[in-house]
User: What shape does this take?
Amino acid sequence: MNPGRIPFGERANGAALEIDILDYRYPDVAEPDGLDLLEIATRLYAPPVESVFNLAVRVRELESLRSYLERISGGNGPRDVLKLADGLFELTFAPSRRGPVLLGVMLHDVERAHVRVEYLITLEPHHIGRAASALDAVLR
Assistant: This one.
């Protein structure tokens, strides 16, 4: 695992999401393959809202996200909902045959305050390819 950033969408075009992979949550603990916990910072941009949610995800969850992105890299493919961080971070993908992929993002924070943010991002095929490449670099 390598630290890195996975971008979804572009801030200049409106709503966007960036997932910063920071480090292992427990770097001195050996976990079974795919079960290591990673510290992440999810940065959301949905004007007028900008915020950061710090969460922990398993390597296996990021591998599932990469696999799904590779299946829909051309903009087509099955709809899917990926729940990460024990359901606190949810990505809903709705590919279409003739247009961009809609990505619904839902983030919860229940530790300090009960916060829930939901918004949509429009992804073109090049956005999906860029996110999949960034995930490849992180998961090497």
